[in-house]
Amino acid sequence: MDDFEKDEFDNENDNVEPTDDAIPKDEKLNEELENLKETFQSELDKATAQAEAEDIEDAKEKDEDEEEPVEISESDLPIQELDEITQQEDDEHTDAEAPEVNLCECCGENPVSENFGEDYPYCDNCRELMKKYPLRASGIIMAVVMVIFVGLTFYFSMDYVDDYSVLLDAGIAYDSGKLTTAMTDYSTYISSLSMNEKPSRKVINKLIDGYTVMGYYGDAADIIKDNFDENALSKPWNAKYQKVLDDYTSLTTTYYKITEIMGDVLNGSTDYDYDKVMAELDSLIGKTADDETTTESDEATTESAEKTQPVVYNEVFVEYYKYVLMSLHNEPLEEQMVQLQKVDSMDDDLEWIYLTNIIGVAAKLGNTELAEKYFNRCISVNKEDSSPYIAYANAFRFTETPDADKMIEICNEAAANVGSDTTYLNTLAIAYLLKEDGKNAMATMEQVMSTGSYTVQGCNLYALTSLYVGEDDNYGEMKTLLENYNFEISKLVTQYKNGKISLAEVLTDNGGDI
Amino acid sequence: MTVLYIIIKYITFPGALVRCMWEQIICRICGVPVEDNRYLRSDEMISHIDHELMPTPRGSFALCFVPAFMNAILAALLAMTPILNLFYLGVGGIKTDVVSILAYWFACSLFINSYPLVEDVINMWDKVYKHGNIFQKIFYAPGAFFLYVGAYLEKYCLTTVIVIVCTVLLILK
Asked: What secondary structure does DSSP assign to A95-152, as a single string?
């Protein structure tokens, strides 16, 4: 500070007059500063003393650890030039700042490629190799095996081309409810197999199902016995076949017992005690067969069943034959219907026994709705059975006003489905007669006679039709034919010939039994 | 679900192996690196190979479609006569039945393993419908939809359920 400035400063200080408050403030400040100085100094002294004490302790510990303390002289210290130290520091600095180089995860040698994103883990070389990863042998072998199997399946199938054709037809017939055709086709296929060949379970199942639905339990049992031995039948997965055999045994045993009870009735005798026979039939329900009831021919069939359990009489079968007894005893149709409906409510496996009878009774009762209901059930099982068509057509014959057109319609439906079974033709001829269409009736009956399968009813109907169209010679021929077989021509036909009753009375009265 | 998925894949290993082979062939043709070509492994990548995503719409569609198509063709050829022999007509004896049963198992395994991995399908969808041209979008649409649905069905083991249900229906027919 030069003289001028110093003077200026002095002058300024001189000009400021001290106040009463200013002097104690400065003193206070100075006192505080002094206190702080002392505090800091004392703390510093303490810290220094503590540090010195720790250093002494460390030194002591170090001395204890090192038995022979090494004196380091200046000559032992590495002497580096300033340039070297600078260079070393520069290198260390460079190493710390340089980014890490990521190596390929595959080879672990080359740096990863930067062409495919930041996180790409492989180098270009490995990437190229990965594009040519060899195919695994397992995949190739499996593909070849599958191609071989394709060839094998077709190769084995070549042997069965004819069988495919037969079985395809059988399957179509079966699925469309034409069981008669289906069973014939399946049987043809089985008969075409050589001795050491056996049909598949699929074919066996179809045959057994078809035969049991149609009521041919004997045929079903034969199929089972031809293809399964007793050991195989005892297996759980063959329980279905064992059940069919058991059912067959039960049915045959029951049938033989029933024929024993009502043999006279079934042979047409009228000399029997209705109530007694009915009671005997009732007594069979819930009972088992005695060994005596098994006939010789039935022994083989029942052998396996007898070993395991006694044969129980088939209740449905017994109840059905109670209806047969009622029918033969001319019990009221309403009671017969009740009995048949009772049978129907018991078991569906034996529909083949009684469904057509229900249609027949409903027809005689003139109940076309009930007849239609059971007719539909019948043809849903087997379209090729002509008996439901005949029974259903008759339902329209016994109404107050016979519906011949409906009868013809049903018979035409039968013609389209039943195939070679021509038993419906008699009913068709009756329908034409009811319609007073003698020409078609005669043509139909000539078709029946041309088949060569004469029946008593067919011969009588042919004679009746011939009389209706004025060909009386045929009446004589039929009379002679029947007499040759110890039958007589129907009294109704003779009465019609003599003009005692009308054609409608012949066809519709007395249940239509010509 | 993953455990069930892996168990099913091991049971149907023939189809899994063949599917992986088709997938790897497509990767080779398209020049896509395969990172892991183990066909059977105990994780969700079983029956699929580990590869980079296909970069093009055509490649991504091919990767999903071709293995599925090839498996389906083989499955149809293998299933034809067994279905006829075992379930429909019932032709043949034990020799034919054994071959038919094996062939049917192969066919089922091929069908169960025919669909692509969900990630591959999503990539395909992205490539075709975000980067593909209009022709690709239209032409690939039915297949892409079919594969998309199939991939999820396979992920949740529903293809196996479908096969089992169909087999039961054939048996009951």
From this structure: HHHSPPPPBPTTTSSSBPPSTT-TT--S-HHHHHHHTTPPPPHHHHHHHHHHHHHHHH
